[in-house]
Write a structure and sequence with these properties.
The complex is a heterodimer of chains A (446) and B (112). With 446 residues, chain A is mostly helical. Chain A contains 15 helices and two strands. Chain B is α+β, with helices and mostly antiparallel strands and 112 residues long. Chain B has a four-stranded antiparallel beta sheet with strand order 2-5-1-6, with helices on one face. Chain B has a two-stranded antiparallel sheet with strand order 3-4. Chain B is elongated. The N and C termini of chain B lie close together (9 Å). Classes of the chains: A mainly alpha (446), B alpha+beta (112). At the A-B interface, helix 10 and helix 11 of A face strand 3 and strand 4 of B.
Chain lengths: 446, 112
C-alpha cells in the first residue's frame, strides 16, 4: 500500500530536510535493511487488524441479529478467518502481491493479478524483506485485511445463508475478487489501478466498496428474510454491537496507521485523521437520527462510527485533520441516508447494512480522498502536475471499476454456488434459526 | 380465603413487598410478566425500521390471605403502587377454595 512513500516528491522532501539534521537524523533506509521500530509497529498493527474481525466485527454483527442466529454469525466470521488464513498462505498472497512480470505503464496479464511464484509462500523466508520489515510480517498484515473483507459481507446475507454455501462463496470470492483487486490497487508499478494513479491508502476500494457491492449482490441473489419487513427483527443484544463497534474503532488504528508500513509521520497523521473522522461521523449519524426520528440511538452512534472509519480509510494516508472532519461528516449523513432511507425505498434486505455503510461510506471516502489529499485542503499534496479535478476523475474511475468488477464476478460466483449446492436454507430452517439447524447449538441456554 | 393478584409496575415491587410485610402478610409469589392495558405498548426504531412492541414488562404479585385481611391488603397495594400515571396496573380478587402446606399437610388458614 504505501509503496508511495517512495514517491519522488517525498524523497525530495527528505533530501531537503536531511541536511538540517546531519547528526541526529539517521539516513533514510533505502535498502532492505530491517528497522526494528517499523517492524514492532507492523507486528502490533497486524494483531490490531485481526482483532477487528475476531472479536470486533463478530460482536458488532452478532448483536444485530435475532437471538436464534447469534452463533451463526460468529461462526461465519470465525470460519472465514481460518479459511482465508490458509488460502492466503497457499496461493492468495501470491495472487495479490507477487510482482513478477509487472512493469510501470505497461498493461499486461500481471496488471490484473499476480503470478503463483509465491504460492505456498515460496521465497517468503525468515530474512525476506518488504521495505524495512520482514516479509513474513507484511504477508501476515495483508492476510488480516484479506480476512476482514469477506467477513464484512456476512452482514448482508445474515440469518438465511447455508454455512457450506457461505464457505464456497467466500473461498472463490477471495480468489477471484479480493486478490485481483488488491493486486491492481496495491502491488505497485504495473498494477492497473496503481498506474491510473488511484489513491487508496488503506482500502476504500479494495476492502469497503469491494465488500459492500458483493454484499448488495448477495442479498439480492438470496432474497429477503422470511417476514421482512413486516415481522419484528430487532437486534437481540445491542450491548454486543456497541462493544463490537468500539473494538473495530480501536483495531482500525492498525488498519489505517499500519498501512504506512512504517512507524513514521504518515502513520502518525493516519492515526489522527482516523480518530477525528470517526468521531465526526458518529456525531453526524446520531444528529441526523435525532433530527429525523426524535431520539439519538446507540445503534445510530455505533453505525456512524463505523461509517466514519470506512470513509477515512482510503484518505488516511493523504488527508489532513480538517479534511477528516469533512469526510467524517459526509459519511455520517450519507450512510445514515443509505442505510435508513434508501434501503426502505428500494426494498432490498441487506440485513446489517453492508451496502449502506461499506459501499456508500467507501465511495464517499474514495472520492473525497481526491479532494482532501490536496495541499490546499491540508493534505499531503497530490502528485506533481495533478489537479484536484484530475485526481477526482481518477478516484471516480477507480470506484467505478471496482463496483463493476466486483458486481459482475460476485454475481457469477453466487450463481455457480447456487446451481451446485444452493445458497439458502429452507423456510422451515430459517424460522427455527440457523444456530440450531446448522450448528446443533443454541447461543443462549438461560 | 382470598387470592389477591396484583399487576404492578416493576419498580414498585420493593415498596409493595415492604408495605405488605408491615401489615402482617407473611408470604407472596412474584412473577415477571408482560401485558398491555390502556397504556398500550411502545415503538422501537432500529436504523429506521420501526417495530411496535405491544407488551410491556410488569410484575405480577400473588398473595393468599384470610378474608379478614382482604380489604387492608388491597388498600395498601393501591396506596403504594400508585404513581397516578397510566400503566399502574390492576388488582384481581379471587375466592380461594383451599390452601395446603406441602411439608405438614396443614390446610386452610393454618397453612397461610
Amino acid at each position: 500500500m504505501l509503496l508511495r512513500i517512495f514517491h519522488p516528491k517525498n524523497l525530495r522532501l527528505a533530501v531537503m530536510i536531511l541536511p538540517l539534521f546531519p547528526f541526529i537524523m539517521p539516513l533514510p533506509v533505502m535498502a532492505d535493511e530491517l528497522n526494528s521500530g517499523d517492524t514492532a509497529w507492523m507486528l502490533t498493527s497486524t494483531v490490531l487488524v485481526l482483532f477487528m474481525t475476531i472479536p470486533g466485527l463478530s460482536l458488532f454483527y452478532a448483536g444485530m441479529v435475532r437471538s436464534k442466529n447469534v452463533l451463526s454469525v460468529m461462526m461465519q466470521c470465525f470460519a472465514i478467518t481460518c479459511m482465508v488464513s490458509l488460502l492466503w498462505a497457499l496461493y492468495a498472497y501470491s495472487l495479490a502481491f507477487d510482482v513478477s512480470g509487472m512493469e510501470k505503464g505497461t498493461t499486461n496479464f500481471y496488471s490484473f493479478v499476480g503470478s503463483l511464484n509465491k504460492s505456498f509462500l515460496q521465497g517468503v523466508a525468515r530474512d525476506s524483506m518488504v521495505f524495512t520489515i520482514p516479509e513474513t510480517v507484511f504477508m501476515t498484515f495483508q492476510m488480516t485485511f484479506a480476512i476482514i473483507t469477506p467477513a464484512l459481507i456476512v452482514g448482508a446475507f445474515a440469518e438465511r445463508m447455508k454455512f457450506s454455501a457461505m464457505l464456497w462463496f467466500m473461498g472463490l470470492w477471495l480468489t477471484l475478487v479480493y486478490a485481483p483487486i488488491a493486486h491492481m490497487v496495491w502491488s505497485g508499478d504495473g498494477g492497473l489501478l496503481w498506474d491510473w494513479g488511484v489513491l487508496d491508502f488503506a482500502g476504500g476500494t479494495v476492502v469497503h466498496i469491494n465488500a459492500g457491492i458483493a454484499g448488495l449482490v448477495a442479498c439480492l441473489m438470496l432474497g429477503k428474510r422470511k417476514g421482512y419487513p413486516t415481522t419484528t427483527m430487532s437486534p437481540h443484544n445491542l450491548n454486543f454491537t456497541i462493544v463490537g463497534a468500539a473494538m473495530l474503532w480501536v483495531g482500525w488504528f492498525g488498519f489505517n496507521a499500519g498501512s504506512a508500513v512504517a512507524a513514521n509521520s504518515t502513520a502518525g497523521m493516519a492515526m489522527a485523521v482516523t480518530q477525528i473522522a470517526t468521531a465526526t461521523a458518529a456525531l453526524a449519524w446520531m444528529s441526523s437520527e435525532w433530527i429525523s426520528h426524535g431520539k439519538p440511538s446507540v445503534l445510530g452512534i455505533a453505525s456512524g462510527a463505523v461509517a466514519g472509519l470506512v470513509a477515512i480509510t482510503p484518505a488516511s494516508g493523504t488527508a489532513g485533520p480538517m479534511g477528516a472532519i469533512l469526510i467524517g461528516a459526509a459519511a455520517g449523513v450519507g450512510c445514515f441516508l443509505a442505510a435508513v432511507k434508501l434501503k426502505r425505498v428500494m426494498g432490498y434486505d441487506d440485513s446489517l447494512d453492508v451496502f449502506g455503510v461499506h459501499a456508500v461510506g467507501g465511495t464517499i471516502g474514495a472520492i473525497l480522498t481526491g479532494l482532501c489529499a490536496d495541499a490546499s485542503m491540508g493534505g499531503a499534496g497530490l502528485a506533481e502536475g495533478v489537479s484536484i479535478a484530475a485526481q477526482l476523475v481518477t478516484q471516480f474511475k477507480g470506484v467505478m471499476f471496482t463496483i463493476i468488477y466486483t458486481g459482475i464476478v460476485s454475481l457469477i460466483i453466487l450463481k455457480v454456488v447456487d446451481a451446485v449446492i444452493g445458497l439458502r436454507v429452507t423456510e422451515e430452517e430459517e424460522t427455527e434459526g440457523l444456530d440450531l439447524v446448522l450448528h446443533n447449538e443454541k447461543g443462549y441456554n438461560l | 380465603m382470598k387470592m389477591v393478584t396484583a399487576i404492578i409496575k416493576p419498580f414498585k415491587l420493593d415498596d409493595v413487598r415492604e408495605a405488605l410485610s408491615e401489615i402482617g402478610v407473611t408470604g407472596m409469589t412474584v412473577t415477571e410478566s408482560k401485558g398491555f392495558g390502556r397504556q398500550k405498548g411502545h415503538t422501537e426504531l432500529y436504523r429506521g425500521a420501526e417495530y411496535v412492541v405491544d407488551f410491556l414488562p410488569k410484575i405480577k404479585v400473588e398473595v393468599a390471605i384470610d378474608d379478614s385481611k382482604c380489604e387492608e391488603v388491597i388498600e395498601v397495594i393501591i396506596r403504594v403502587a400508585n404513581t397516578g400515571k397510566i400503566g399502574d396496573g390492576k388488582i384481581f380478587l379471587l375466592d380461594l377454595s383451599e390452601v395446603i402446606r406441602i411439608r405438614t399437610g396443614e390446610k386452610g388458614s393454618d397453612a397461610l
